[in-house]
């Protein structure tokens, strides 16, 4: 049986003594698992917390898999306050936007990195924007940030644009988004308040 690197995104009671888990695995993607007896065995349940890096094994029968082993890896510093809410936000994005059984190793690495940054409590907004952009790119919805969609012109850093959600940026002198901000987002430069918004 293979070991999978993973994190618990969501957990809830299932039947009398078990736990239902939504897990994000580097090798298998998002997977639904049942931890039989997970509520009864406190040490086992304590490992199965969000933000805890894990090595997992499971046996699959149909859509739900049964967790057979879980080992905690290096502990992440606990998330507190705003960082905790941001961590739950990131988990919610993954739980709602990823398809089951669709691995995204690059996104898994970005998730691990954003958790470390949240634990440090430094530059949280920038870390979240980078993660959001990575997630959108991984699932095929990367925003257009390098050209104007009406005429195909390259974004001019000194011009103004409005962003049409299902299309991309359109030049507009009355727009609210400066070209420089779009280019900063494209290049991962998120130091300005506009590019972190």
Question: Gist?
Answer:
The protein has 197 residues and is an alpha+beta fold.
Q: Averaged pLDDT, please?
A: 90
Approximate helicity band: 25-40%
Q: Main sheet, how many strands, which sense, barrel? A: 5 strands, mixed, barrel
How large is the count of helical segments? Answer: 6
What is the total number of structural domains? Answer: 3
CATH overall fold name of the largest domain: OB fold (Dihydrolipoamide Acetyltransferase, E2P)
- Order of strands, widest sheet: 1-2-3-5-4
Structural class: alpha+beta
CATH superfamily assignment of the largest domain?
A: Nucleic acid-binding proteins
| SSE pattern, N- to C-terminal | EEEHEEHHHEEEHH
Head-to-tail CA distance between termini? 44 Å
By CATH, the architecture of the largest domain is named: Beta Barrel
Number of E-type strands: 8
Question: What does the radius of gyration come to?
Answer: 20 Å
**What percent of residues are in strands?**
25-35%
Unreliable stretches covering 5 or more consecutive residues? none
By CATH reckoning, the class of the largest domain would read: Mainly Beta
Given the C-alpha coordinates, what overall shape results?
Answer: elongated
């Amino acid at each position: 049986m293979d070991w999978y690197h993973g994190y618990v995104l969501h957990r809830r009671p299932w039947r009398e003594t078990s736990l239902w888990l939504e897990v994000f695995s580097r090798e298998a993607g998002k997977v639904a698992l049942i931890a039989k007896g997970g509520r009864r065995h406190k040490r086992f349940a304590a490992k199965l917390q969000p933000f805890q890096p894990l090595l997992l094994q499971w046996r699959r029968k149909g859509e739900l898999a049964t967790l057979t082993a879980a080992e905690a890896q290096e502990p992440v510093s606990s998330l507190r306050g705003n960082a905790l809410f941001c961590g739950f936000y990131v988990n919610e994005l993954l739980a709602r936007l990823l398809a089951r059984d669709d691995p995204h190793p690059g996104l898994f690495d970005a998730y691990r990195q954003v958790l470390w940054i949240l634990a440090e409590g430094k530059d949280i907004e920038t870390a979240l924007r980078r993660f959001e952009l990575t997630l959108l790119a991984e699932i095929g919805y990367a925003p257009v940030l390098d050209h104007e969609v009406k005429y195909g012109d390259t974004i001019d850093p000194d011009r103004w644009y409005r962003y049409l959600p299902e299309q991309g940026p359109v030049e507009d002198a009355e727009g609210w988004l400066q070209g420089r901000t779009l280019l900063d987002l494209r290049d991962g430069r998120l130091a300005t308040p506009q590019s972190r918004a």
